[in-house]
Amino acid sequence: MSSKKAMKLAQKQAYARHRSNITNSKFSTKKTTFxxxxxxxxxxx
Length: 45
What we know:
- The chain has one helix and no strands.
- The protein has 45 residues and is mainly α.
- The mean pLDDT is 77.
């Protein structure tokens, strides 16, 4: 594989990793806040 191709591939992989990290962090924070709200409601009742 030429170095140009290797660099392009590495950039694509890095960008994909970056995008998945963003989406994962968004969803994980939403999940935790949602679960925390449910816990608080259940404790009141």
